[in-house]
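Suppose a colleague, Dr. K., hands you the sequence of a protein chain of 184 amino acids and asks what its three-dimensional shape might be. Before reaching for any lab equipment, you can write down a predicted structure in token form. Begin with the sequence itself:
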Amino acid sequence: MPRASLSLEGQPVRDGNDLVTRISEMPVGSEAALELDRAGKRMTLKVPIEERDKVFKEDLAALGGRREMVDSEDKGAESSARFGIGIRPLTEERRKQLGFTEPGGVEVTVVEEDSFAEDIGMRVGDIIVSINRQPVASFEDVKRIQSGLKRGDAVAFKVMRPVPGQARGQRQWTGVYLSGVLPK
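The predicted structure, expressed as tokens, is then:
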């Protein structure tokens, strides 16, 4: 199956992360020119940039936390969303260990095999700072956001990742967007 080439505002899009990152940096209410080339047919679409909660009405709050594992199989939750991660809060001591100075965030401690989180590229050691543009600072934030999602909903995480090759006490961090649709 041939891949479609894609550009945003005349600049090539490298991958899904690149597209999500660039769109999330555009002002709400603006319009983006999305150019596609599918099987030799070139088309340009004008796409309005809206808040995620308007586009995906089921998406709600944020992430956070104290418990290790976020996901649990709720008894009657046939439609509940599962990320497949374990998290822990960032204490001041842990922040110093990691060299992480930004506010908020929870640390990913487990990424379950064959989970949604693994599919979108989440890694142990990532620090989740937002989900669907909602800030994350605790386990309760994560549960609140997760409870507003159901299977088939779109989810975008902003995570901070250490830049490779840095000394432990002098780490630099870079923002990465991970997104996908929760499995049905």
